[in-house]
């Protein structure tokens, strides 16, 4: 199927390495503002797929552990730094961005259990988020986990995830060092801040969950790879375990769920098993995630019958049934599904029923409508359903007809613990639900978190908007009234002079594409405004309203910011996702092109003032728009983006992405990947817009070589054009991962805006 041939052209590897080292040590005085980037070796690799020969000139950059490749990345970053640091307006821009982000702390990822709240908070001077706990929303907070205590040899640590036990006494916390997301799972006693039991290695994406009494922890662990195994096998054959805590603190770990654990569970090598429990349910749900695919396979077993390989799992649902979210209450499982409902509906199924779930026999709780249903959350008083309409959020509260009793009351703080039960108390069979009411939100925006506790009435909602700073709002469990809390301090920025406009733009095939435009109210509609067009378009992930304080620095200069809600995302439900998926992926970037043409025609901007930005999978979208229509844009920024889809399957996250993009293992998959590879689509003798590509060298999701190869290819094309070529910069954070650490965020945003202002003609950003 595939044959490989490598042959070097023009330079030997050794001579190119010498050139790279020379470029890396040259100071700015040695070259002033020479536009030529460092030299890059062309080392041609030819692969034959299904009889088709494909050439890759920069395959050697994929070996990021070799000295010559590291030197190349350092030379590229030095080149980018010389240009970016020389932009006259950069220093003032940095000062403004620091000011805009203010002195307020940032709070996120709140969890509620018993009377406790746990959350991540980053103060302005903190390098990363710390974990705090407080008693009640208004109680005093207490620092429980400072990740700095896990720093190693100058490499900073960060909290990747956490889970608070239902009684509020224990925390399972994933700590990763060096920005690579390879977390170690620690169990912490909330009262003493002391560790309990041995840390659990290889716990990236462990999805920890606690049994109702806090005495058993469920988690997923990666297997230990053998030496020399390729990175693409990193997530293969993971397993879900149960750790039991004894009275003396001794623990035992038992494999419960995963490939090879139980013959009743069908799971592929690259699938991920996790376990889900509720303090109000006598069942355990085994979840099989199929890479980045939204839909999963579900198994169920009684909580009292977890016996390692002998656990009596039975399959409940398959991906074909379109389930993307669920929650438990008693014998009932509430399911969010797009089966026969592209914008989703909520149904209910009894876990006492021995049959597999079937839509035809399920009770509909929330019927499909013109709204897109996003998430469901069980609280003591009601089921809370997050919906979106025209891109903004709504929240439904559906009260239960029958109340359930909790399993067992936890002992009061300071009192001896009762002997833990092995199962929740008996629950009533009938647990009907009545149609409730919509919670009136304080402003039009996006719900980022719906926080509930099955043992606690009410909910906590994190709400934000394009021009509204995020805040946490408490929903009363009796009346449904919503009030703002002080959990997240208010941002004092004044956005009253900013307008938000939502329009629908005809795509290339006549499909309406949502477009959001944020601009100063007095912006001139004469084509002179610099405009930054943002897009993502993958995994069914939406781009909802989000408050970006730094954006004010762009808007203050008369700039416009627009978000193209392109196909491949989830703004309009599952059909919208499938419309920019595998063989239909081209719709994602052609939707960007259509919105760009509309913005130009409506005089919001003009091609010399129009720039693109996309991150991660959005980098693929915007880079393809640039490659297909270079005449429309002045610049493109790809943040931690990927571009070489033919090779992405070889990386650590590659197998997980096959459900979204396809595989070179099939002829149709190869055709799809080749058609969406912006790296492969770059052509010689084309004047592409200026480009800035960024990456964290420790990125565990997008391999650093991907933006490196794209930068090398664009630089080669630009250099061959001479004066017609535009600059191509590669910004590398050698200590960063997928995304920027809090401490360096202002620097990266400054670089992005400075580059864009330079390329869209801002007079105070012209190089001397």
Verbal overview:
By secondary structure, this protein is an alpha+beta fold. The chain has a domain at 2-24 and 41-87 and 521-763: Rossmann fold (3-Layer(aba) Sandwich), CATH 3.40.50.1820. Helix content is 18%, strand content 31%. It contains 13 helices and 38 strands. An eight-stranded mixed sheet has the order 31-32-34-33-35-36-37-38, with helices on both faces. The chain has a four-stranded antiparallel sheet with strand order 4-5-6-7, with no helix packed on it. It has a four-stranded antiparallel sheet with strand order 11-12-13-14, with no helix packed on it. β28 (456-464) and β29 (471-475) form a beta hairpin. α1 (13-25) runs parallel beside α3. Residues 1-32 and 403-431 have low confidence and may be disordered.
Write the layout of secondary structure elements.
Blueprint: E1 2-9, H1 13-25, H2 28-31, E2 42-49, E3 52-56, H3 67-86, H4 90-101, E4 106-113, E5 116-122, E6 130-135, E7 141-145, E8 157-164, E9 170-177, E10 184-189, E11 209-210, E12 216-221, E13 239-245, E14 251-258, E15 272-276, E16 283-289, E17 296-302, E18 314-317, E19 323-329, E20 332-337, E21 345-350, E22 363-366, E23 372-378, E24 382-389, E25 392-399, E26 437-439, E27 446-453, E28 456-464, E29 471-475, E30 482-484, E31 498-506, E32 512-520, E33 531-535, H5 551-555, E34 560-564, H6 574-578, H7 586-601, E35 610-615, H8 617-628, E36 635-639, H9 654-661, H10 667-676, H11 678-681, E37 690-696, H12 705-720, E38 728-733, H13 745-759
Parallel strand pairs: 33-34, 33-35, 35-36, 36-37, 37-38
Antiparallel strand pairs: 1-2, 2-3, 4-5, 5-6, 6-7, 8-9, 9-10, 11-12, 12-13, 13-14, 15-16, 16-17, 17-18, 19-20, 20-21, 21-22, 23-24, 24-25, 25-26, 27-28, 28-29, 29-30, 31-32, 32-34
Helix pairs in contact: 1-3, 4-13, 7-8
């Amino acid at each position: 199927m595939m044959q490989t041939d490598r042959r070097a052209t023009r330079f030997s590897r050794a001579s190119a390495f010498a050139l790279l080292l020379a470029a890396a040590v040259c100071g700015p005085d040695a070259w002033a503002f020479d536009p030529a980037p460092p030299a890059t070796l062309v080392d041609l690799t030819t692969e034959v797929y299904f009889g088709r020969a494909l050439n890759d000139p920069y395959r050697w950059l994929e070996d990021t552990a070799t000295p010559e490749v590291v030197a190349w990345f350092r030379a590229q970053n030095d080149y980018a730094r010389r240009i970016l640091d020389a932009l006259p307006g950069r220093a003032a821009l940095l000062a403004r961005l620091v000011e805009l982000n203010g002195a307020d702390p940032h709070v996120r990822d709140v969890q509620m259990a018993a009377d406790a709240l746990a959350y991540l908070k980053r103060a302005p001077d903190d390098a990363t988020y710390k974990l705090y706990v407080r008693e009640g929303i208004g109680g005093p907070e207490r620092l429980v986990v400072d990740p700095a205590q896990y720093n190693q040899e100058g490499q900073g640590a960060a909290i990747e995830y956490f889970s608070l036990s239902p009684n509020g006494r224990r925390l399972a916390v994933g700590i990763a060092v060096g920005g690579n997301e390879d977390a170690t799972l620690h169990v912490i006693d909330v009262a003493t801040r002391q560790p309990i039991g041995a840390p659990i290695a290889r716990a990236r994406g462990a999805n920890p969950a606690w049994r109702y009494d806090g005495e058993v922890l469920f988690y997923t662990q990666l297997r230990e790879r053998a030496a020399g195994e390729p990175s693409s096998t990193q997530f293969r054959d993971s397993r879900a375990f149960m750790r039991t805590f004894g009275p003396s603190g001794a623990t035992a770990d038992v494999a419960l769920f995963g490939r090879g654990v139980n013959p009743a569970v069908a799971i592929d090598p690259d699938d991920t098993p996790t376990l889900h429990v509720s303090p109000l349910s006598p069942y355990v749900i085994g979840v099989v995630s199929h890479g980045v695919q939204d839909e999963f396979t579900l198994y169920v077993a009684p909580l009292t019958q977890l016996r390692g390989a002998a656990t009596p799992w039975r399959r409940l649902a398959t991906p074909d049934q379109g389930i993307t979210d669920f929650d438990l209450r008693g014998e009932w499982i509430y399911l969010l599904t797009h089966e026969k409902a592209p914008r989703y509906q909520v149904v209910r199924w009894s876990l006492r029923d021995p049959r597999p779930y079937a839509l035809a026999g399920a009770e509909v709780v929330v019927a499909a409508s013109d709204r897109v249903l996003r998430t469901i959350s069980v609280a003591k008083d009601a089921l809370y359903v997050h919906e979106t309409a025209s891109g903004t959020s709504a929240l439904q509260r559906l009260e239960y007809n029958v109340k359930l009793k909790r399993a067992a009351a936890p002992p009061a703080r300071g009192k001896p613990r009762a002997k833990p039960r092995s199962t929740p108390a008996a629950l009533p069979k009938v647990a009907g639900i009545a149609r409730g009411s919509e919670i009136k939100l304080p402003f039009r925006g996006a719900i980022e978190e719906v926080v509930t506790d099955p043992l606690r009435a009410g909910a906590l909602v994190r709400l934000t908007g394009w021009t509204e700073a995020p805040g946490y709002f408490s929903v009363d469990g009796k009346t449904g009234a919503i009030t703002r809390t002080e959990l997240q301090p208010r941002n004092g920025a004044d956005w009253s002079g900013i307008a938000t406009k939502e329009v629908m733009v005809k795509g290339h095939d006549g499909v309406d594409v949502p477009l959001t435009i944020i601009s100063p109210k007095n912006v001139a509609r004469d084509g002179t405004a610099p405009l930054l067009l943002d897009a993502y378009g993958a995994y069914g992930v939406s781009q909802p309203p989000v408050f970006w304080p730094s954006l004010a620095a762009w808007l203050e200069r008369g700039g416009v910011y627009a978000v193209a809600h392109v196909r491949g995302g989830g703004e309009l439900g599952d059909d919208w996702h499938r419309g920019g998926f595998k063989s239909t992926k081209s719709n994602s970037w052609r939707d960007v092109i259509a919105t760009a043409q509309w913005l130009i025609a409506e005089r919001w901007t003009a091609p010399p003032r129009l720039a693109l930005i996309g991150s991660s999978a959005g980098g693929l979208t915007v880079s393809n728009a640039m490659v297909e229509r270079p005449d429309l844009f002045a610049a493109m920024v790809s943040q931690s983006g990927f571009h070489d889809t033919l090779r992405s399957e070889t990386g650590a996250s590659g197998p997980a992405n096959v459900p979204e993009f396809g595989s070179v293992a099939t002829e149709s998959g190869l055709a799809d990947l080749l058609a969406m590879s912006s790296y492969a689509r770059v052509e010689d003798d084309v004047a592409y817009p200026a480009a800035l590509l960024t990456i964290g060298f420790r990125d565990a999701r997008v391999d650093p070589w991907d933006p490196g190869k794209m930068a090398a290819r664009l630089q080669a094309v630009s250099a061959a054009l001479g004066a017609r070529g535009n600059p191509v910069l590669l910004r590398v954070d050698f200590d960063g991962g997928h995304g920027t650490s809090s401490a360096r965020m202002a620097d990266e945003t400054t670089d992005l805006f400075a580059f864009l202002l330079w390329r869209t003609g801002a007079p105070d950003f012209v190089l001397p």
